[in-house]
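>> Question from a student workshop board

For tomorrow's exercise we were told to take the sequence and the ligand below, predict the bound structure, and bring the output to class. My setup keeps failing. Could a helper post the expected result so I can at least see what it should look like? The ligand is zinc ion.
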Amino acid sequence: MKKTNYSCIECGAKNVALFQVFSENALTLQTCANCSKVIDKYVEYDFTVIFIDILLLKFSAYRHVLYNSNTKTQLSRLLALTLLSSSYVEWVYQKAQIQQRSEFILYELEWSFYIMIGQELIKAALFSFTFMLLGFISSKMSVYRETFSWTHMFCGMAMSYCWHLVTVPSLVWKHYSTYRLLSQIALLISCNHTFHVCVCRSYVLSAITVLGAWGVQQIITPWLQH
Ligand SMILES: [Zn+2]
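>> Workshop helper replied:
Here is what the output should look like for this input. Compare the format with yours to find the bug.
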């Protein structure tokens, strides 16, 4: 039985192979049986181009990363970097607020950096769990559903979480709340793309899933901070 693991980046149809090898130096990209376009043009592209297309929130770039490439190692490193960076930015912001209210510098706040990492981790885990659970339920409800995969959903969530890196420039240029708002908007749009690629193409179900996960995260945040 043939494996159909690869996904056409244009229409999402499953295909057997991305390219056909004729000799050691000759191969040709395969076209999709459903839409007649090249299944995955990104196979020949440099990583920089793919990265820019991800920043431009193109569905095709999301399909390439989630279905047709092996980027789990790089993604896990980027995820760890994002967690540490976003925790540090949030910690610096909260530390500045406390120092404005008090004449004393609270050196024990250094310990609170590790607590902040724990809080960010719990928030991210809760958001991801709610998103994937609602995504799984949505996949059962939708007629035009994709083949649901927890692994692809998790990788999509990891990609979306990396949008928290948007807050890092606020360390230099201030305006933390503006950068945080931008990162949250980008995160929600990216989650919508993950849902669209991994679950189904219903924007209604996508909006319910993304906003549901975001709402749960907003409810739990005050509890974590006290
Ligand atoms: Zn296609």
